[in-house]
Structure formats: C-alpha cells, structure tokens
Recover the amino acids of this structure.
C-alpha cells in the first residue's frame, strides 16, 4: 500500500489466525446434536431437558466467544 | 373497546416519546456533514460497544420474531424452538467473517455487501444480483414488522370496518417513522433501540417470573402444552422433537443463522460499529437477546396453559396466531403493564423497520443508482437519493399490508430468507477466497434461486389449505427417498449453489475466461480503526498495485 500520509500504518502481514479460534466450533456443533438434548427428563425447575439444555448452550456460546475475544484482541 | 383505554393511552404515550427521540437523534453525536451516506446511512461508522449491542440486538430480534416465534411454539411446540439454536450458532459462525467484512469495508468505504462483491470480483453484474436479492429479501421483512404492530392493535381493539379505518393507526405510525428516518438516518433507530430493548427486557423478565407463579409453575405449563399436543391430530407437534422433524430443526437453525447476517440490514448494523473489537465483543454480548427470545418463545406454552384463543384472521374461518402473546398479556396482567408490553412490541417494530429501509435504500443508491443511472453522483447526491428511496420503501411496505393479504408478506419473507442465502458464496466465502470465478458465482446464484423457487412451490400447508409456498420443510420423499423426514429448503439450495459455482469455475478456468481484477489486498481484511481509508482517487492506485 502506497499511502504517503501514514507509512507506519502497514506493519508486517497481519492475520486473524489463532489456535483459540477452534473453540468457536463447540457452540456451532453442540446445538446441532439433537439426540443429545431431545428428551423430556431430567427436568430442571419444571423445564424439560430439551429446553434447559439449549438455554445452557447459550452460555456455552457466550463463554467460548468471550475467551476467543480475550485471547485474540489487539492491544 | 372501553376496557382497553389504559393500554391504548400507555401505548400512545410511549410511542410519542420514541417518535420525539427519533427526530432529536439527528443532533445526537452530530456529524459535521449529514450530506454523506456514511453519516446518514451508517451513523458515521462510529458506534461503540453499547450502542452496537442495542442497535444490532434491536435489528436482529424484531417485533415480528417476538410475536411469531411464540405463535409457532403455541401451534407446533418444540419445532418452533429452533429460534434458540439458530441464535446460538450464528455468533461463533460469523465471528471471523464479520471482522473481515468490517475491515475491508472500512478501508474501501463500502456501505453495502454488494459494494464489496463489486470490488472483490470486479463484476457489476454480480453486484447487481446481490443488491437485487438483498432488496427483494428485505421488503417483505419490513412489511412483516407491520404485522407485529397490527397484532398488538387488534388485541387492544383498535380496528375499524373499512380498509382505511383498520389500517389508519399503522399508516400514521409509519408516516412518523418515515419522517424521522428521513431526517436522522441510522441515528434514529440507534437511539430508539435503547428504549425498545429496555422495555422488552423488563416486560419479559416480569412475565417469565409472574406467569409461572399464576399458572402453577413451569412444570405444569409444560404439562398443559403436552396434553394439548397429545390430543391434536398433527403427528409433528409435541414438547420434544420426533424422528421426522429433527433434520428440519437442525438445518433450519443452521440455514437461518447463515442467512441472518447476510441480510443487508444486519450488515448495516455491523458496519456502523467503530472497530473490530466492538464486533468481537458483541458476538458474546448479543446472545443475551437469544436468552430473552428463548424465554419469550416459551410464553407460547404459557398461552396454552392459560387457555388463550387466538383472534380471527383476515379471511373468514382462519385464526391469527400472532395474537397469542398480546392476548396472553391482555388476559393475565393489569392493563397498564399490558400497555407497556404492547408498546415494547410496537416500538420493537420501528427499530428494525427503520434499519431495513435504510439498508434497502443504500443498496439501491450504491449499486443501482450510482452504478447504472448516475456514475458521477456526489456524496451529497448519494445521501439524498438514499433518503428518498427509504421513503419509497416504506410506502411500499405499507401498501403490501393494506392492499394485499398479509399471508402474501409472510410467504415472501419465507422466500426472502432462502434467497438471501444464495448470496453466501459471493459475500461470505468471498471474504476468505477469490478462488470462485465471478461467472461461477453468477451461475450458482441462478441455479440456487431457481431451485429454491421450485422446492418452495412444491410444499403445501394442510393447516390452511394452501397448495404452494406452505412452509420451508421439504419432504425428502419428493427427492425419491423412502422416508418421512423433512429438510430446510435453503440448506439444500445453498449447497447446490456452491457446487454449481465450483463446477462452473473449473470450466471457466479451463477455458481461460478472464476473471477480472481483485480491488482489495490481503492487508485490507485486517484493517482497524485509525488505519488509512482508501479514497476514491487512491483506490485506482491500489487496484493497479494489487493486480501486479
């Protein structure tokens, strides 16, 4: 990039590569495995497993994306 | 309608409050020069973490979602809960995609996904197809937001006999919305989203604690739902999935997740954020809305448990199941709280409707007007055309609801979700690789679109007696498989689209067909806040450099 105003803006090749990114696969795969959670019991606070497990997967998603963000953010 | 007076008064007051905010928004974080598409259409590309969270949350989780998902659960049970896995999968899936899209758009000043495709693949034709797909998919989505408001108005008894009387409140609401969007651009929905989402969060949290208390706990709510589904003749309802609808559940969740961030209005929300970290942080903050949506979905069961009977639909003998949540609030809560809930849904329709009309207007301006009608348009002209187009788009959406059967908009939105998926190979994959040939992408798009239409045409809906466009669950037996399983149409057609794109790419490479010049460089995909922007005249130099 030839930009006369900000020559220092182009450091060595940047990249989003990080082994932490693999964690993102967990919340993509988990909700797709219906045999894992397609059950009525055990119930939790009256919620069938089908529902509370999927609510739990939301937390899994939040946790993994937060970890990946913290580990890959630019300082 | 005497007993609904409190509800109507609260609804109207809150509605007027946000309308006022919409007009004031033009002066919020005031730009130096509003006569630029970056300012009017993207809020100056300056939104931080909180604003982006409210804006994108208000954009993705629309009023229609909030009435339609519980309605689906009310009618079919577990199958309607796909909205939760859908909104779990979406964030990790798009985590790495959106930051690349933001970077390349920041560097090149792209406003729409079609802008990116045009530069990346050097193909105005492909960009035009992407833009038209985006506009066609978005229009019915805007119309559906009106259905969300209408469900609330119906419950409050604000309905008249003539066509005009019945739709007058919606026409007034949209006229106000159109006026402040015209004036304030993306800043209006960004500011209103704060009120909308705060109201929604309060309403839902109260509802999920108070309703089980009144109805004997969540356990008995689920039991009541199970009893209803056991008694119904439909084999595919129930509070868990059965052997035949699991594949549909998974593919619908995955396909919808892939589609949602390809919609122009979602991309508008993402591009308005100020840097990459804001986007990454929001990928872990936005699931708060998924939690809310899951809880709200379960209100469909609460409606079963409290014996809600949906109001009659537009045509004789049908019911409007979208009214179940409003009716539930009307039935179980004091009038003032129901009024707040109705306002939350009503205002909830305004935020996405505003962003969608802005996104559609930007597509028209950047990829049709500037590309084909007026190549030398200035920034100020672009902004003006976009503002006017946003008005036209809203008039179109209101006309759809007033003059056509609302079912038509619902059908179109179903199609919209599937056709927007056909832009995935060019927009999402295109961010990572330029291997696919522009001709291959066009061929894949065409085949994907044609096949989507054919498959949707085949699907009947026995529940309302429609022979075509009855849903998105395609019976695999129609492909000759000996099974009762169904699959989501979009999932199949996007795979076929990609296969065709790959095959045609091989052919075009073998025949040495030119595939244009990539206007982006590798480094563009990692640019961040503060990195230099490529202006119009510098772009030529970069084009030249990257081609060598």
């Amino acid at each position: 990039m030839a930009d006369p105003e900000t020559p220092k803006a182009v450091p060595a090749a940047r990249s989003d590569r990080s082994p932490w990114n693999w964690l993102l696969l967990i919340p993509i795969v988990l909700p797709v495995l219906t045999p894992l959670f397609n059950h009525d019991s055990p119930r939790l606070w009256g919620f069938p497993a089908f529902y509370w497990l999927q609510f739990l997967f939301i937390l899994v998603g939040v946790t993994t994306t937060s970890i990946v963000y913290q580990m890959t953010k630019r300082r | 309608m005497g007993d609904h007076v409190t509800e109507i008064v609260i609804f109207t007051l809150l509605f007027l409050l946000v309308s006022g905010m919409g007009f004031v928004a033009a002066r919020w974080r005031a730009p130096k020069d509003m006569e630029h598409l970056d300012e009017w259409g993207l809020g100056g590309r300056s939104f931080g973490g909180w604003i982006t969270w409210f804006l994108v949350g208000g954009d993705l989780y629309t009023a229609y979602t909030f009435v339609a998902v519980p309605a689906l659960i009310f009618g079919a049970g577990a199958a309607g809960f796909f909205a939760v896995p859908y909104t779990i999968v979406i964030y990790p899936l798009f985590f790495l995609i959106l930051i690349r899209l933001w970077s390349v758009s920041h560097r090149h000043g792209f406003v729409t996904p079609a802008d990116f495709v045009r530069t990346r693949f050097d193909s105005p034709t492909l960009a035009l197809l992407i833009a038209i797909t985006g506009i066609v998919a978005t229009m019915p989505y805007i119309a559906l937001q009106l259905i969300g408001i209408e469900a609330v108005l119906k419950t409050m008894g604000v309905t008249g006999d003539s066509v005009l009387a019945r739709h007058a409140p919606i026409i007034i609401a949209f006229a106000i919305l159109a006026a402040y969007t015209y004036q304030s651009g993306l800043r209006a929905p960004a500011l209103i989203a704060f009120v909308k989402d705060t109201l929604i969060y309060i309403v839902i949290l109260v509802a999920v604690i108070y309703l089980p208390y009144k109805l004997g706990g969540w356990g008995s709510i689920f039991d009541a739902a199970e009893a209803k589904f056991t008694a119904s003749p439909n084999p595919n309802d129930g509070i868990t999935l059965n052997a035949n609808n699991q594949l549909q559940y998974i593919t619908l969740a995955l396909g919808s997740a892939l589609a949602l961030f390809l919609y122009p209005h979602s991309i508008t929300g993402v591009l308005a954020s100020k840097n990459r970290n804001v986007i990454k942080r929001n990928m872990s903050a936005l699931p708060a809305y998924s939690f809310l949506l899951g809880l709200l979905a379960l209100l469909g069961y609460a409606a079963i448990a409290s014996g809600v009977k949906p109001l009659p639909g537009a045509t004789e003998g049908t019911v409007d199941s979208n009214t179940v949540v409003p009716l539930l609030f009307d039935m179980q809560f004091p009038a003032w709280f129901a009024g707040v809930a109705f306002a939350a849904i009503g205002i909830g329709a305004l935020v996405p409707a505003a962003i969608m009309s802005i996104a559609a207007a930007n597509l028209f301006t950047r990829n049709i007007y500037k590309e084909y009608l007026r190549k030398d348009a200035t920034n100020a002209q672009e902004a003006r055309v976009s503002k006017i187009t946003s008005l036209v788009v809203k008039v179109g959406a209101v006309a759809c609801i007033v003059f056509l059967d609302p079912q038509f908009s619902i059908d179109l939105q179903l199609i919209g979700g599937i056709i927007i998926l056909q832009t995935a190979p060019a927009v999402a994959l295109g961010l990572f690789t330029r291997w696919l040939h522009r001709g291959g992408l066009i061929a894949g798009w065409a085949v994907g679109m044609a096949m989507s239409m054919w498959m949707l045409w085949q699907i009947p809906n026995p529940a309302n007696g429609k022979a075509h466009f009855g849903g998105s669950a395609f019976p695999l037996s129609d492909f000759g498989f000996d099974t009762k399983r169904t699959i989501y149409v979009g999932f199949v057609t996007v795979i076929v689209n990609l296969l065709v794109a790959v095959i045609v790419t091989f052919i075009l490479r073998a025949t040495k067909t030119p595939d244009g010049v990539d206007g982006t460089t590798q480094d563009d995909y990692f640019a961040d806040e503060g990195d230099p922007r490529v202006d119009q005249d510098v772009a030529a130099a970069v084009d030249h450099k990257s081609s060598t």
Remarks:
- Chain A has a mean pLDDT of 80.
